[in-house]
């Protein structure tokens, strides 16, 4: 078997063909025209959107939300149509309100990309209402892609938090999986953590894996990335090798348990809609799933 496995396919949330040229955000007149002729996705305070029974997103006309786009964010354009997102309170309307984690893997590339951008961008606006420099209120500008302080004029732009996610394997037939303390029994995934100030991605891999399970790794290599708007992360996937003879020391208060799991068992769990032998793996919408699938199917 090869140690050079890759993701089995591009992660779903990384496949969006939606375009957002800078002039669409910068020119108010252009943005106003895009608003009048566009479609709008309502997103509630929990990051959920209305879904049709068929599994499609429910899009609205701009007039349902007012005459101008000052309260909306421009998500981008595709096939001649501009798409926007607005924050609303969830309400019953004959449709279900569902989140990206639950339905993301069933959406097409366009819908998944728009949903991802809407959730992340609106979450940033919720947290950027006051200036970090002087404390005055801020206002939305550039079609929702920046905020300007009403006091000192300082501008803030949407932030993305870099984080690593790493599939640690033994170079043979086992992968290291862990369960966070907040997860239900049986739910396992690969290891992940946020990049700290002054730290490289590879340094983050080494530090997080050692902190979470007490294992040292080598042969770190990049696999791919995926936006993860919970609330605003960019997950950068890596693979690394560790000696299976090292003792596992789950971090107290963070990791409930960690185990080396065989390729056969991982493959069976990925192929089942239900937990297999007590093992429940990440859903298809996540890069973790694509990493595990790529590794599990790499047997030569």
Automatic annotation (TrEMBL):
NCBIfam families: PRK00241.1
Region span, Disordered: 1-27
Matches recorded under SUPFAM superfamilies: Nudix
One Pfam short name: Zn_ribbon_NUD
Keywords carried by this UniProt record: Hydrolase, Magnesium, Metal-binding, NAD
Keyword Magnesium: yes
Protein name: NAD(+) diphosphatase
GO molecular function: metal ion binding; NADH pyrophosphatase activity
EC annotation from Swiss-Prot or TrEMBL: 3.6.1.22
Domain named Nudix hydrolase: residues: 158-283
Family recorded in the similarity comment: Belongs to the Nudix hydrolase family. NudC subfamily.
Statement: the UniProt record of this protein carries the keyword Protease: no
Catalytic reactions of this protein: a 5'-end NAD(+)-phospho-ribonucleoside in mRNA + H2O = a 5'-end phospho-adenosine-phospho-ribonucleoside in mRNA + beta-nicotinamide D-ribonucleotide + 2 H(+)
UniProt cofactor(s): Zn(2+); Mg(2+)
GO annotation, biological process: NAD+ catabolic process; NADP+ catabolic process
Alphabetized Gene3D superfamilies for the sequence: 3.90.79.20, Nucleoside Triphosphate Pyrophosphohydrolase
Any one GO CC term of the record: cytosol
């Amino acid at each position: 078997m090869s140690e050079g496995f890759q993701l089995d396919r591009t992660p779903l949330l990384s496949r969006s063909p939606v375009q957002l040229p800078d002039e669409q955000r910068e020119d108010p007149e252009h943005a106003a025209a895009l608003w009048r002729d566009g479609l709008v996705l309502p997103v509630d305070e929990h990051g959920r959107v209305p879904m049709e029974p068929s599994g499609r997103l429910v899009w609205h006309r701009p007039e349902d939300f007012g005459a101008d786009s000052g309260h909306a964010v421009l998500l981008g354009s595709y096939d001649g149509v501009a798409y926007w997102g607005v924050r609303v309170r969830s309400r019953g309307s004959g449709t279900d309100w569902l989140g990206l984690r639950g339905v993301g893997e069933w959406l097409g590339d366009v819908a998944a990309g728009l949903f991802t951008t809407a959730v992340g961008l609106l979450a940033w606006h919720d947290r950027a209402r006051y200036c970090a420099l002087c404390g005055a209120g801020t206002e939305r500008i550039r079609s929702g892609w920046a905020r300007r302080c009403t006091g000192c004029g300082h501008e803030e732009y949407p932030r993305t938090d870099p984080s690593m996610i790493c599939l640690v394997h033994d170079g043979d037939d086992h992968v290291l999986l862990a369960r966070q303390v907040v997860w239900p029994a049986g739910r396992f995934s690969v290891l992940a953590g946020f990049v700290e100030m002054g730290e490289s991605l590879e340094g983050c891999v080494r530090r997080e894996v050692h902190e979470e399970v007490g294992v040292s790794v080598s042969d770190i290599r990049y696999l791919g990335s995926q936006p993860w708007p919970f609330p605003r992360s960019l997950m950068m996937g890596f693979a690394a090798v560790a000696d299976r003879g090292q003792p596992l020391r789950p971090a107290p208060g963070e990791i409930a348990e960690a185990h080396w799991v065989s390729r056969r068992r991982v493959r069976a769990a990925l192929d089942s809609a239900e937990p297999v032998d007590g093992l429940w793996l990440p859903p298809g919408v996540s890069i973790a799933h694509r990493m595990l699938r790529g590794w599990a199917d790499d047997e030569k």
